[in-house]
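ok trying again, last paste got cut off:
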Amino acid sequence: MNGYQRIEAALKGLQPDKTPIMLHCFMMAAREHGLTMEQYRNNPKLIAECFIASVDKYKYDGILVDIDTATLAGAVGVHVDFPIHDPARTHIGNLINLYDCRSLKPAKVENYKYIQIWLEAVRLLKEYYKGEVYIRGNCDQAPFSLASMMRGIQNWMLDLMIGEDEQIQSLLEYCTDASSQFIKLMAQTGCDMVSNGDSPAGPELISPEMYLKYAMPYEKKIVEVAHQAGVAYTLHICGNTDVILEHMLLTGSDAYELDYKTDITKILNTFQNNVTLIGNIDPSGVLALGTTADVQKITGELLSVCKNTNRFILNAGCAIPPNTPPENMKMMIDTARNS
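nice, full thing came through this time. structure:
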């Protein structure tokens, strides 16, 4: 099997010849290619070159094409900072009052420079690999997360507690439209999978009841957009998601990229071989800061727990830090290949 076939097997619940591996390693790939994040985010050819070099070096099966967590926010008018050496970020929102959401002009995310760069990078990678390597085009923020950026996280948490429900839902619909636009554009690149992150919707910030009311229905809508466009979909939420795992399944996602803080046994018992897990090695404490022995031990333990399911793709639980030692990355992959 080639890389594409391994990951396709895992998504369908079929037995791959080896453990499929799809890494969230864009920052590490850029640094190893000698690029700053500023150089990386501004040139689709360089983005593609980074991942090609990374796959050549580490021999993994699937590329998760990511740039940062602020692209959709920038596309809808949020002020974005662009550090030279770090991914772009937001600090304050652009929607000062929640009631102003009713007067927002419809988003046109295709007009944003960094959306087009992201799309072109995915197109280049898909053209280069021609079905040999699986290509996942991340689509930045899911609606709940995007709303938190437009309002600012503190204001958004207050909105959920004391804001008018009609206005909250109106903003979430606006953000769903923006997220859906990005997904449709990404699907046109020919990528194999799309994904979004919705980490502010996790239990570390909101209750399971709030997740069911304000996040899950809109996640479900963008999953449906992806499926209508003919691509698989992955949802990512950071942190410990134990108490919302069953709720997350209601979105209809094909796969879930989950953090190491979520109990692996609970994940497998909840998923029941019906959907695919992507994860969930600790990217910082193990991959970046651990020893090769640590990496070998933790990876081996994860593989042992997952040995009875075909619906598993090895990855870190979140983005892999740029300072991760290459020997640790190789150890994780070698451990999986030799299991």
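cool. The longest strand covers residues 134-141. The beta strands are 22-23, 62-65, 134-141, 193-197, 232-237, 255-258, 276-281, 312-316.
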